[in-house]
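I hope you will forgive my troubling you with a question about protein structure. The record follows directly beneath this note:
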Amino acid sequence: MGSATREALVSSKQVLDATGSVDLAVASELFQVGRAVGGSLQLRSLLTDPSTPDDTKRAIVERVFAQTGDTTRSLVTSLVSARWSSHDDLLEGIEELALRASAVATGDQASIASELFEFGRVVSSDAELELALASKLGRPEAKAALVEQLLNGKASPATVTIISSLVQQPRGRRIGELLRHAARVVADQRGQTVATVTSATPLGDAQLERLRSALSGSYGRDLTINEVVDRSLVGGLRIQVADDVIDGSISSRLGELRRQLAG
């Protein structure tokens, strides 16, 4: 990710935070805009070309996305007025803004992040379901309908909107990767970081709270914990926070010992 894109993402978040009224319809429209931009190379080129005047970009947004609401068009205009390092980075920016808007619209980011994590875990354990959602041969609309059928009444409307939108435009990413990224963005909108804690046996509530408190102190911000039980670890914990991995599992130590003996 180039510096221009990083600055554009920060700017887009500031614009969203300053926007008075954002509901789930806005988030859904932003995802629709992302699919439209992703499906047109000409449109992406015009909107990311630094030589295209801002007035021209604004006129393109007003014309192409006339069916969306004023708030959505205003947010998209602010996005395309920024500089992006590549065409794909603009798509990433639209997706991130849609994710953040989904979180703002509901106000319960922790619940959304947890539901995204749980659905990702279900998909990863069901090869048939993962294939149905990830196959390049499947119609995007059919994938969205499948998600809505599976989650109807079982997850928040924001979670359903996010997942059904992401499976329609994965941009080369696996479902698990999509959902983990979405959970991180949603948590970040609330000023939190997601920590994935893997253990051989389930941890108690008191243990999880002590761990959350310790990690929050180390990282200087509140954390939400997603717990994974993996019997192959034998004992100990594996903790992942963003790109940081703390591996204190017995299986890891045994693997390191085997490598030392073999070397």
Q: What stands out?
A: Strands lie at 192-199, 222-229, 237-241, 244-247.
